[in-house]
Amino acid sequence: MLDWLDFSTLNPPVAALESVRTPSRTIRLPRVILLTFFDKLPCKELKLTRNNVFERDRNTCQYCARVFPREQLNLDHVIPRHYGGKTTWENIVCSCIRCNTRKSSRLPHEAGLRLVRKPARPKWRPVISLVLGNQHREMWKDFLDLAYWNVELEE
Known about the structure:
Elements: H1 4-9, E1 19-21, E2 26-28, H2 50-56, E3 73-77, E4 92-96, H3 97-103, H4 136-149
Antiparallel strand pairs: 1-2, 3-4
């Protein structure tokens, strides 16, 4: 692992968008930065985020049991909010667009649907893996999308 001083002295040819210029040199931008020191201990509570719900449910619709790409999944309140359902681990599940539309703002049994498994707070931390693409914009897409996937859901 390189520290910043070692990294800044490496000087391979770089594209203009992958570097920062100083008066005396061009410095390659790092793609990933490893944090080795925390000012405070990180939060131990597992946050209720889209990404963590999709990880818990393994990208599987909890009504039809089919696996989908995340772009084709929604989050569904098992007990709809207008029935008093809360945005909690125990009331949010992954659902495909078709099942979510079919269920609408009804209880699952009212829509003729059944849950594959009862939703619960995970007892583990989901592992998030990032795969970098070959194109410059694609390479940063995952980093930019993390803000969307890991923002804590609000009531």
